Amino acid sequence: MKFAGLTVAYWSVLVAALLPFVCAGLAKWGAFSKPRREGGYDNHEPRAWMAQQGGWRARANAAQANSFEALPFYMGAVIIAHQLGAYQTRLDVLAFLYIVLRLMYILLYVADLPTPRSLVWSLALAVNIGILFV
Question: Which of 17, 28, 37, 84 has its CA 20 to 30 A from that of 10?
Answer without folding.
Answer: 28
